[in-house]
């Protein structure tokens, strides 16, 4: 049983708020400054081990280097008469994300797009700050993400921060435990007790391997998948269908599947390069596409930025290989591929003047695409377009997109129009 | 940087202490410091007495020993003690430095071992018995008592560079407090502490050299 220590250094201990194999965390009061703090004390039986001490103290120094409202702050480091080092840390009064989600789920809550956005933006801010200090967290998991009240900045306090959500207005997410327990376990030859199983990226599961910031990019999506599906993705290979089902079930955009799967790729080189890129992809997937309208109505609901992007793509792209293509009779389906991403237009290549032709796009591995119509109109993200034909000749419809890797995809569809 | 280190090595080989010290004083960043420490450690292992002296100075002045000790220890007095023990161990065992690892890696291992010694000792000791300097049981305490009790060791003092000799003599033979040593020598207390630590370390190296180390 845990012994309650009345004082640690000058801090008056109130209660145990967390225990692990190597350290116990206490809620304590700093009476000089009149503040509640968390004191993390290295276990008595480990405090003579120089390597465990070094790791423990390293965490304090690492936290000190990081400057972010989304990463737990360290205020002090000290040592007891028993030679146990301790870290004095920011106190997260609203507990862990694991506790919050368990509580919410028990009352029938289901994550909304706002919840996903709050989690994604808070975690991405934390990971960005960790990486800016040349550190890799390596252990993002629901038990290592904390909530704190009192400061009205942060992910939960956005303009659309409705009540009942994951992160309440005025609360903020805090990332804690910089991969410490895992490293400590390794240095003592012990294995980590469960909890973060399933949240470890593939490169940290086997033997020694190089781990960099993209391990945390994996972890970001692991957290979102956990929020959405209730399960960590690392235990079994994640089935895209499982994610789709969960997203559909929650009424979340299925487009979210793509950034999640990209950053959960086994090969770090195939993931988003950093947390900011990941967040941009997630937020864009969460933004609902404009309502669909028949093509003939015209470009009324375009997002200007995307139009500019599509125009730039065209300027650079149509001169290339896609521009000249032999027209064939019948239906063809010529796809453009970059890595896992695929883009192709399906539909007739020959039609009678006066009829309406429907073209459909198959887009895999891209979040957005744009149609470029023969008259110069651009439509974004529509699964299909309709073309009303008026005179004989050839018409060209192009669809363009940018894969997560940043490479451009395009498919050109030529349509020969003949007098009936 | 490579040229600065090459000049340093040449100065050590030629026995030009003042040129070597000037060269050391001009190194600015950590990479330069590490390269200089590697060069001095290699020359020390090859038997250069001047290199040992410069190495002890440089490890102390660059704060390399203290930094290594701080990885393991928190308490300021403990960091002081173990930094001194580390410096002595470096001086005494530098002949066994193989040059396969970086010097700082080797230093880190020594700091780790001396820290373990300290932690074991501190666990066993009465925490209130805190007025000894250096703390009983440390390598520094052993050196200090060797200087005090053995005439042979006192004779070796004559071979120390002057600024270290006076400091060790006043501290370990005359048993004056650091503040008093500082007043007598017209130096500040921290400088004196550093000079005593370096002097003890160099004496330890000499004892090994003469086969007087037990």
Note the topology:
The complex is a heterodimer of chains A (420) and B (214).
Chain A: E1 7-8, E2 11-19, E3 23-30, E4 35-42, H1 50-65, E5 74-79, E6 85-90, H2 97-106, H3 113-132, E7 145-148, E8 172-175, H4 180-188, H5 214-229, H6 240-250, H7 257-263, H8 275-286, H9 304-317, E9 335-338, E10 341-346, E11 350-352, E12 356-364, E13 366-372, E14 378-380, E15 384-388, E16 393-403, E17 408-418
Parallel strand pairs in A: 11-17
Antiparallel strand pairs in A: 1-2, 2-3, 3-4, 4-6, 5-6, 7-8, 9-10, 10-12, 12-15, 13-14, 13-16, 16-17
Chain B: H1 2-13, H2 17-26, H3 30-45, H4 49-61, H5 64-70, H6 76-93, H7 103-124, H8 139-149, H9 151-157, H10 162-173, H11 178-185, H12 189-209
Describe this structure in words.
The complex is a heterodimer of chains A (about 425) and B (about 210). Chain A contains 9 helices and 17 strands. Chain A has helices at about 50-65, 95-105, 115-130, 180-190, 215-230, 240-250, 255-265, 275-285, 305-315; strands at about 5-10, 10-20, 25-30, 35-40, 75-80, 85-90, 145-150, 170-175, 335-340, 340-345, 350, 355-365, 365-370, 380, 385-390, 395-405, 410-420. In chain A, helix 3 runs antiparallel to helix 5 (about 215-230), helix 3 runs antiparallel to helix 8 (about 275-285) and helix 7 (about 255-265) packs antiparallel against helix 8 (about 275-285). Chain A is elongated and about 95 Å long. Residues about 150-160, about 180-195 and about 295-335 of chain A have low confidence and may be disordered. Chain B has one domain (about 1-210). Chain B has helices at about 1-15, 15-25, 30-45, 50-60, 65-70, 75-95, 105-125, 140-150, 150-155, 160-175, 180-185, 190-210. The longest helix of chain B is centred in the middle third of the chain and has 22 residues, at about 105-125. Chain B starts with a helix and ends in a 5-residue tail after the last helix. The model of chain B has no long low-confidence stretch (mean pLDDT about 85). The interface of A and B includes residues 53, 58 and 81 of A.
């Amino acid at each position: 049983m845990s012994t309650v220590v009345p004082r640690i250094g000058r801090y008056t201990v109130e209660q145990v708020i967390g225990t692990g194999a190597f350290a116990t965390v206490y809620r304590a009061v700093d009476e000089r400054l009149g503040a509640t703090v968390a004191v993390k004390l290295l276990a008595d039986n480990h405090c003579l081990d120089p390597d465990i001490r070094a790791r423990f103290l390293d965490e304090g120094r690492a936290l000190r280097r990081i400057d972010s409202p989304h990463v737990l702050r360290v205020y002090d480091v000290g040592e007891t008469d028993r030679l146990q080092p301790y870290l004095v840390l920011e106190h997260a009064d609203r507990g862990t994300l694991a506790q919050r989600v368990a509580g919410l789920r028990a009352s029938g809550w289901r994550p909304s797009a706002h919840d996903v956005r709050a989690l994604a933006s808070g975690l991405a801010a934390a990971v960005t700050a960790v990486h800016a200090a040349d550190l890799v967290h390596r252990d993002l998991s629901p038990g290592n993400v904390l909530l704190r009240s009192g400061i009205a900045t942060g992910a939960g306090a956005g303009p659309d921060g409705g009540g009942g959500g994951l992160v309440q207005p005025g609360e903020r997410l805090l990332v804690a435990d910089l991969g410490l327990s895992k490293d400590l376990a390794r240095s003592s030859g012990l294995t980590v007790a469960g909890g973060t199983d399933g949240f470890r990226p593939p490169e940290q599961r086997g033997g020694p391997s190089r781990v960099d910031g993209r391990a945390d990019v994996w972890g970001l999506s692991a957290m979102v998948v956990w929020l959405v599906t209730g399960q960590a993705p690392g235990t079994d290979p994640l089935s895209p269908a499982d994610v789709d089902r969960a997203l559909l079930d929650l009424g979340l955009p299925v487009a979210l599947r793509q950034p999640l799967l990209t950053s959960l790729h086994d090969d770090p080189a195939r993931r988003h390069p950093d947390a900011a890129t990941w967040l941009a992809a997630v937020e864009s997937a969460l933004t609902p596409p404009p309502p669909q309208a028949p093509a003939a109505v015209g470009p009324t609901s375009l997002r200007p930025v995307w139009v500019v992007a599509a125009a730039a793509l065209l300027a650079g792209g149509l001169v290339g290989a896609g521009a000249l293509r032999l027209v064939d009779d019948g239906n063809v389906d010529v796809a453009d591929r970059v890595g896992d991403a695929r883009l192709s237009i399906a539909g007739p290549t020959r039609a009678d003047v006066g009829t309406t032709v429907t073209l459909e796009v198959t887009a895999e591995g891209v979040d957005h695409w744009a149609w470029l119509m023969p008259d110069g109109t651009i439509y974004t993200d529509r699964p299909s377009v309709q073309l009303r034909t008026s005179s004989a000749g050839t018409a060209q419809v192009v669809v363009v997109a940018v894969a997560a890797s940043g490479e451009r995809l395009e498919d050109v569809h030529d349509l020969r129009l003949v007098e009936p | 940087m490579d040229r600065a280190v090459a000049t340093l090595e040449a100065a050590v080989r030629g026995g030009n202490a003042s040129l070597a010290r000037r060269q050391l004083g001009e190194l600015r960043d950590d990479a330069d410091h590490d390269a200089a420490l590697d060069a001095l450690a290699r020359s020390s292992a090859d038997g250069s007495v001047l290199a040992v002296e410069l190495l002890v100075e440089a490890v102390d002045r660059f704060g390399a020993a203290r930094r290594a000790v701080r990885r393991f220890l928190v308490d300021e007095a403990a960091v002081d003690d173990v930094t001194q023990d580390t410096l002595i161990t470096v001086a005494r065992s530098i002949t066994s430095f193989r040059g396969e690892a970086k010097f700082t890696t080797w230093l880190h291992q020594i700091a780790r071992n001396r820290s373990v010694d300290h932690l074991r000792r501190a666990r066993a000791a009465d925490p209130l018995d805190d007025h000894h300097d250096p703390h009983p049981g440390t390598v520094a305490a052993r050196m200090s008592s060797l200087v005090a009790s053995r005439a042979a060791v006192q004779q070796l003092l004559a071979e120390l560079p002057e600024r270290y000799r006076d400091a060790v003599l006043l501290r370990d033979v005359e048993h004056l407090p650091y503040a008093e040593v500082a007043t007598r020598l017209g130096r500040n207390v921290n400088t004196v502490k550093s000079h005593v630590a370096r002097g003890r370390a160099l004496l330890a190296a000499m004892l090994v050299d003469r086969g007087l180390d037990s």
